[in-house]
Q: What sequence folds into this?
DNA sequence: GGGACCATTAATG
DNA sequence: TTCCACATTAATGGTCCC
């Protein structure tokens, strides 16, 4: 489930109140919790800490972002709005046309999974408040503990304050994977192709079972939960709906040991989501919720549809599609795709230090673990990413891509050390390593995913809904993004030719490459330090930015008068540039209008940068969003239409040897 | 203009 | 007594090099 976040913000005699809904989001097992008290305790325990300060930093960043969007919104003229309303309406119609109510999806979610498993192996824990994790962080808590406000992703020492009786149990992934496997055996009987979303969650397409056995959805769901219980002794909750996005929302409704069914009926769906808080949707987290609420007054999914024009105007096309889809209650219904893992990583936290010998020791350990893990899956990677968390909780990543892929702990360590060296001296509290850019070892499984998509975009009403759905599935079902379709643990042994492929290229252009990357890493480390507010940008860069801003501003301000709303003179000629486009060229006209608007906004925006040092990033920027609309169609997403068949569930097996 | 890389943010469990 | 994990994916946007 979504985790809760803390956030600071002061002012007011009761500072904890402005403490953004810390661990108090309405969640299963949280009824009757004294939220105010929880909030206060968490605040008291947090304030003044390094962690807290970092949270404040992040909060400030977010506020900036919101202000940014507010400004953008304010810039929209009535003409713009009506234009984008038309764009939005069209998109709504297109998306609506992809609605598929023929499938029945079920989402299962085990109740307090880790905690429940621990209780199984130690029944004396039953009925007593317990959390799985450590004093510094707990993974989850049972429902008894939740009554005190104790929740997943809450530091243990805070949980202790909330619930002095709290019992801590260390995590034991072996156990969880074991029980997870048991549940999956049950799932398999209802949908052999079910998607495993995590150890404790899965999506099943139960359309066929219902049909074949001629029983109702309710019966199937009831039976499945019963069978899971019989097989494991664990309870779970389920949600059923015509698509995965909604099914997931539904499984949370009667959370502990319950189920909720949403009929495959458009009216029912619309009613269901109309009052649904957007935060309930997978993919909409704390930040997005805030932006939508503070900038557009959007709280429910219904609001989402009302404000659709803003999305088309200010967000990237993929984001706009996602929001509109949610507003329509659409979600993934297509058959699960087989996805292979994209990265493998490990990281460790320790008490902050500057001891470089210690760092090195950590790198050795991490390299060895990572290497071993990769070997288990027969992977070789080309990109190594070093992750650091400073004593002040700032996170940095430094990556390096090599000519040939590697896996040996020696190689990993060698490059990792180099990356780290460039960052010294620093005081760190965490070091991590990640490998990506996998080569799929030997066994034929092709490597490069040169995904093709485009096709999906061209024709909306096209032949199959699956393709179209697939297209949106990226965005839409963000929560399913790490699902793996299940395959029996019957895979073949590993490779033998592995070592070949890396040796060959070995020494060649390596030096060159590495040097370049090295520079790059150092350079950006100064630059990005990401100091929107307090941090000052590197002088040189700052100047450059400013200069650009001014130059843009001049041209911008002079022409911004001219570039008001676009009108089609005599219904075919552009009032701004004179280009001629007959009324029937709807798409082209829209793109043309977008072009002018983008042009205008870009200038305005850039001139705004001259005043404040605004962050230049974030997907919520309209400049690209608008431009993207015309040409960006192909650029956005694309997903998993790449058909590689590399069944793995390895992700989960890996988790097992991770403490 | 597009591709390869890199860094950061957001989100999920 | 100490004072906030770890694994994974995706989107976005910047830089550099054709
Ligand atoms: C949310 C979260 C979960 N987990 C682990 C522990 C959880 O038992 C497991 C499944 O997550 P959840 O399904 O989110 O939580 P849960 O199963 O413990 O409780 P419930 O579903 O009844 O609300 O994932 C983490 O390790 N870190 C996290 O931040
Ligand atoms: Mg669960």
A:
């Amino acid at each position: 489930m979504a985790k809760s976040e803390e956030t600071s913000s002061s002012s007011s005699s009761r500072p904890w109140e402005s403490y953004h809904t810390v661990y108090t989001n309405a969640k299963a097992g949280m009824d009757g919790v004294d939220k105010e008290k929880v909030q206060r305790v968490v605040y008291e325990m947090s304030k003044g800490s390094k962690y807290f300060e970092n949270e404040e930093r992040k909060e400030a960043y977010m506020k900036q972002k919101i202000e940014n969007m507010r400004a953008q919104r304010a810039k929209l003229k009535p003409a713009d709005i009506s234009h984008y309303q038309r764009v939005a309406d069209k998109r709504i119609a297109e998306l609506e046309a992809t609605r598929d109510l023929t499938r029945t999806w079920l989402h299962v979610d085990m109740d307090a999974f880790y905690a429940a498993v621990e209780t199984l192996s130690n029944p004396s824990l039953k009925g007593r408040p317990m959390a799985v994790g450590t004093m510094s962080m707990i993974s989850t808590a049972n429902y008894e503990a939740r009554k005190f406000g104790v929740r997943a992703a809450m530091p243990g020492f805070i949980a202790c304050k909330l619930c002095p009786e709290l019992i801590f149990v260390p995590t034991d992934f072996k156990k969880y994977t074991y029980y997870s496997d048991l549940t999956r055996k049950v799932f398999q009987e209802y949908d052999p192709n079910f998607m495993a979303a995590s150890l404790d969650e899965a999506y099943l397409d139960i359309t066929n079972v219902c049909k074949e056995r001629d029983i109702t959805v309710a019966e199937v769901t009831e039976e499945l939960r019963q069978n899971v219980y019989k097989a494991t002794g664990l309870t779970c909750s389920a949600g059923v709906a015509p698509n995965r996005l909604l099914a997931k929302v539904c499984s949370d409704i009667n959370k502990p040991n319950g189920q909720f069914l949403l009929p495959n009926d458009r009216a029912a769906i619309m009613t269901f989501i109309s009052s649904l808080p957007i935060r309930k949707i997978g993919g909409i987290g704390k930040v997005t919720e805030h932006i939508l609420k503070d900038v557009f007054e959007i709280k429910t999914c219904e609001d989402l549809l009302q404000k659709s024009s803003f999305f088309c105007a200010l967000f990237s096309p993929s984001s706009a599609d996602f929001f509109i889809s949610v507003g329509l209650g659409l979600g993934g219904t297509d058959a699960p795709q087989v996805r292979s893992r994209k990265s493998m990583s490990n990281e460790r936290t320790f008490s902050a230090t500057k001891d470089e010998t210690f760092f090195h020791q950590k790198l050795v350990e991490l390299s060895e673990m990572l290497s071993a893990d990769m070997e288990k899956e027969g992977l070789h990677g080309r990109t190594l990413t070093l992750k650091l968390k400073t004593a002040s909780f700032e996170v940095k990543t430094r990556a390096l891509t090599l000519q040939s892929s590697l896996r040996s702990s020696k190689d990993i360590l060698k490059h990792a050390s180099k990356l780290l060296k460039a960052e010294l001296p620093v005081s760190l509290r965490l070091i991590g390593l990640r490998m990506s850019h996998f080569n799929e070892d030997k066994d034929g499984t092709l490597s490069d995913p040169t995904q093709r998509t485009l096709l999906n975009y061209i024709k909306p009403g096209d032949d199959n809904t699956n393709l179209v759905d697939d297209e949106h599935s990226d965005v839409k079902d963000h929560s399913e993004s790490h699902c793996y379709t299940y395959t029996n643990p019957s895979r073949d042994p590993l490779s033998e030719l592995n070592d070949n492929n890396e040796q060959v290229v070995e020494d060649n252009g390596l030096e060159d490459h590495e040097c370049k990357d090295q520079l790059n890493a150092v350079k950006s480390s100064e630059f990005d330090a990401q100091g929107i507010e307090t941090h000052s940008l590197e002088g040189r860069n700052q100047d450059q930015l400013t200069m650009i801003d001014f130059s843009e501003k001049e041209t911008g301000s002079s022409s911004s008068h001219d570039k008001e709303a676009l009108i089609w003179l005599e219904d075919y000629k552009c009032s701004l540039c004179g280009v001629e486009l007959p009324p029937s060229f709807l798409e082209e006209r829209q793109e043309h209008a977008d072009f002018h608007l983008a042009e205008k906004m870009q200038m305005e925006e850039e001139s705004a940068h001259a005043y404040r040092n605004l962050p230049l990033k974030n997907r919520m920027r309209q400049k690209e969003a608008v431009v993207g609309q015309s040409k960006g169609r192909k650029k956005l997403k694309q997903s998993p239409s790449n058909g590689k068949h590399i069944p793995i569930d390895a992700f989960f097996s890996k988790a097992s040897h991770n403490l």
User: Anything to note?
Assistant: The mean pLDDT of chain A is 75. Residues 493-611 of chain A form one domain. The pocket of magnesium ion (ligand 2) is lined by residues A 109-110, 113, 200 (CB under 6 Å).
